[in-house]
Amino acid sequence: MDTTRFTDSRVAITGGAGGIGQAIARRLIAEGAEVYALDRRGLDKLPEGVAGIEMDLGSPASVAAVVAGLYADDDRPVHLVNSAGIVEDDVAAIDMPIEQFDAVIGVNLRGVFITCQAFGRELIARGGGAIVNIASMSGNAVVNFPQKQSAYNTSKAAVTALTKSLAVEWGTSGVRLNALSPGYVDTPLNHLKADMHDIWKRDVVVGRFATPDEVAASVAFLLSDDAKYYIGAELLMDGGYSLR
Ligand SMILES: NC(=O)c1ccc[n+]([C@@H]2O[C@H](COP(=O)([O-])OP(=O)(O)OC[C@H]3O[C@@H](n4cnc5c(N)ncnc54)[C@H](O)[C@@H]3O)[C@@H](O)[C@H]2O)c1
């Protein structure tokens, strides 16, 4: 690992207190970055060296206040990783209350748009930067089985489409956006569905979930100059699940 790849860089991670968010924070710190974890909970349990900032990405005002605070006395660009996300717990579309559909789209899609816009404006004003959005194999590669999660799957397909759209709009201003689509990862997001884990693993070619650290390594790559020619790409890392 290059411990200097992000020296002098600032990176904000939404959902930074979550399973994948914390792994990304640890990885980027190990590579020299200054890291801010933006989350609505869990900020008291962050890895050493991570600055926790309370933020609800359902609220444009909350996001705007965080962005203003980050630039209050430091003009260096703040790169962005969108890792916040929620999933409905195995709900058939035919029975899903519209409020539940709205809640998932609200965090996973609307929230990503709000943060991309707020952070993207500042990056454009400073000549560029990088944004990585965590989508999912559930967006474009598979429909998960056996659980039903139509809102989540839809939101993640849209995150990839949004990433591509913004990559084209902002690419000429030096802002690179890319999406990372993991398969199953061992984090609290999946713990409620423990009875399904064996079914999921059966179809992963390598027979196991990804670790949060493996996801973090790919995020670090997309965020870094090593990925300079990646513009609006979706990287799929699913252990071969979608091939079966
Ligand atoms: N775990 C997996 O198997 C898996 C697979 C593919 C993609 N993903 C995606 O990776 C990302 C991270 O997932 P994870 O496994 O770390 O989940 P997680 O539940 O451990 O973490 C998600 C974090 O998002 C935060 N969050 C939710 N709503 C928020 C809001 N309104 N404002 C601010 N923060 C909010 C939560 O507080 C939590 O800390 C998500 O986007 C998820 O969809 C996860």
TrEMBL record:
Pfam families cross-referenced by the UniProt entry: adh_short_C2 (PF13561)
Record keywords: Oxidoreductase
Keyword set includes Oxidoreductase: yes
Domain Ketoreductase: residue ranges: 9-183
Keyword hit for tRNA-binding: no
One Gene Ontology term of the molecular function aspect: oxidoreductase activity, acting on the CH-OH group of donors, NAD or NADP as acceptor
SUPFAM superfamilies (alphabetical): NAD(P)-binding Rossmann-fold domains
InterPro entries: KR_dom (IPR057326), NAD(P)-bd_dom_sf (IPR036291), SDR_fam (IPR002347)
PANTHER family, alphabetized: 3-OXOACYL-[ACYL-CARRIER-PROTEIN] REDUCTASE FABG, SHORT-CHAIN DEHYDROGENASES/REDUCTASES FAMILY MEMBER
Family the UniProt entry places it in: Belongs to the short-chain dehydrogenases/reductases (SDR) family.
Name recorded for this polypeptide: Ketoreductase domain-containing protein
Species assigned in the record: Subtercola boreus
